[in-house]
Design a protein that fits this description.
This protein is α/β, with parallel strands linked by helices. Helices cover 40% and strands 19% of the residues. A six-stranded mixed sheet has the order 2-1-6-5-4-3. Strands 7-8 form a two-stranded parallel sheet. A hairpin with a 5-residue loop joins strand 1 and strand 2.
């Protein structure tokens, strides 16, 4: 397990696990059983599939549920209360009020520009835009979708820094196996530059173990 984490950064492992779960759930596609539906219901179902773009949105929703444990859709209604548009919203763009009766949508919560208020969907709700909500209970995620892998982000950062540290050590360190020292010091800038170039040529993994004579 230690070798695995040294070979691959933690964020790559997390991404691979998420992709594996998504493919395991929805990678092979899906079938909707319509045997018991009437012709009218089948037509409505077909219209719903086209409106929501079900084949395209199913893997996206699955990934959102795995990462954030919640899924959101913005529902748009006309004056007659008929559903006209369904839009999937990525969970990180939403926040919830303390009482849970109002949600807020923003593309950039760091700047908090263009925050949009929306209410949850309910059959008696008369708002033109409503929010369909599916949330799994998660500890510490009452107001915004904190990913469950967030506690591992420090280790993901550490994994990346360790590999960079090892690379920097290899590129910048000098590893001579034998050095011959002479009492004469460089007398001119040209001699000093020759000495600097000699040391620089000894840097890197391919020069480890080479002998060097320094005068």
């Amino acid at each position: 397990r230690r070798v695995l984490f040294r070979s691959f950064p933690s964020h790559d492992i997390h991404g691979a696990i998420v992709d594996y779960k998504v493919n395991a759930v929805i990678g092979g596609g899906f079938n909707i059983i319509t045997d018991k539906l009437s012709n009218e219901e089948k037509v409505e179902l077909y219209a719903f599939e086209n409106k929501i773009k079900l084949k395209k949105i199913a893997p996206i929703v699955t990934k959102q549920l795995i990462i954030h444990s919640r899924v959101y859709f913005k529902l748009c209604f006309n004056d007659k209360g008929k559903l006209t548009k369904i839009e999937n919203l990525s969970p990180e763009k939403l926040r919830r009020s303390r009482d849970g009766k109002t949600y807020f949508i923003c593309d950039d919560w760091a700047s908090r520009i263009d925050v949009f208020e929306i209410t949850p969907y309910h059959p008696l709700n008369k708002e033109y835009e409503q929010l369909f909500i599916y949330e799994l209970p998660c500890i510490g995620q009452d107001y915004y979708p904190l990913p469950q892998y967030s506690s591992a982000l420090n280790f993901a950062f550490l994994s990346g820094e360790l590999s960079y540290l090892a690379k920097s050590n290899i590129q910048n360190a000098v590893f001579p196996s034998f050095a011959m020292m002479f009492p004469k010091r460089p007398q001119s800038e040209e001699e000093k530059n020759v000495l600097r170039r000699t040391i620089d040529k000894l840097k890197g993994a391919e020069n480890a173990g080479k002998a060097v004579a320094v005068s």
